[in-house]
Design brief:
292 residues, 8 helices, 10 strands
Length: 292
């Protein structure tokens, strides 16, 4: 009790003294004499920059671009902006939201222009980087379209040059040709091969499924894969008729439920040649694929 009472008396004494002898320039109001905190500052990354680390959330504290001629793992090819309802959100668009899917779709288009083809045509992965929670609260409304190379073991590769043009026809990161090997069950092993060397598989293209739920079982996956038939026929220059499967076989894979949720509804379609070739069989036509 004494301690609290003494504190109260001291406080009263100070107020009384201040009222009697106020220094010049002091108005007696304490609250308005503190400096206003600065508004949160936002920042925007730049296209054409390279980075040492890979991540979906980009913090200013670790934003340290390096020259693309120096050792790096990630390259930013485009920086977009959320607008409209997406920009009006109070929180970051979560993975799988319409806003996040729209950003992913734009990144697919923008990176295709720079890479020379869709990133799924070769050993390139696409990552969409977003601001941190604090950055979004501070007004950041950008998204970053990042790409990186992966090796045969799916590990990211440290590069010393840009990925621009690496998926154009004849590009060093394209995976146009394969050697397919049957495995027990329905599995097929694949190994990249030079198209001028003996190979029995070629990348035919991608089928893009509509915006429907991800396949829930093997039967639904197989139904999805049926759409590779027209893709393979168009690639080989064959009629898409009932004889197609007597001419060629095809191999497919989809990218899984997590990728589907972020907007990657592609099915990777490859032709399986009945007879190995040492050149690309694209557009070879019916004479090169007799009905067996």
């Amino acid at each position: 009790m004494r301690r609290w009472l003494a504190g109260a008396l001291v406080g009263l004494t100070l107020v009384s003294l201040a009222a009697c002898a106020r220094p010049a320039g002091v108005d007696g109001a304490v609250a308005d004499d503190w400096p206003q905190p600065a508004a949160p500052a936002s920042w925007t990354p730049k296209a054409g920059e390279c980075h040492l680390s890979i991540g979906d959330v980009i913090f200013l504290t670790v934003y340290q671009p390096v020259a693309c001629t120096a050792g790096h793992r990630l390259e930013t090819l485009f920086v977009g902006t959320f607008t409209g309802d997406a920009a009006a959100r109070q929180t970051l668009p979560p993975e799988g939201s319409p806003e996040a899917r729209a950003a992913y779709a734009e990144c697919v288009t923008r990176t295709k222009d720079v890479l020379g083809d869709d990133y799924r045509a070769g050993r390139v992965e696409l990552s969409v980087g977003l601001p941190s929670t604090a950055g979004w609260s501070g007004g950041a409304r950008w998204f970053r379209c990042d790409v990186y190379e992966y090796g045969e073991d799916n590990d990211d590769v440290r590069r010393t040059e840009s990925l621009q043009g690496t998926l154009a026809p004849g590009g060093p990161l394209r995976t146009d040709c394969y050697t397919f090997t049957d495995q027990p069950g329905t599995d097929v092993d694949s190994a990249p091969a030079a198209c001028t060397a003996s190979h029995n598989g070629e990348f035919a293209g991608l089928y893009f499924a509509p915006d429907i739920p991800a396949p829930a079982n093997e039967k639904e996956v197989e139904a999805l894969a049926d759409h590779c038939g027209p893709v393979v026929a168009a690639y080989a220059g064959l009629p898409n008729d009932r004889n197609l499967l007597f001419r060629v076989s095809y191999v497919y894979y989809w990218y899984g439920e997590a990728e589907w949720d972020r907007g990657n509804r592609a099915v990777h379609c490859s032709i399986w040649l009945r007879k190995p070739a040492t050149r690309l069989m694209k557009g070879a036509g019916p004479s090169a694929f007799p009905v067996n």
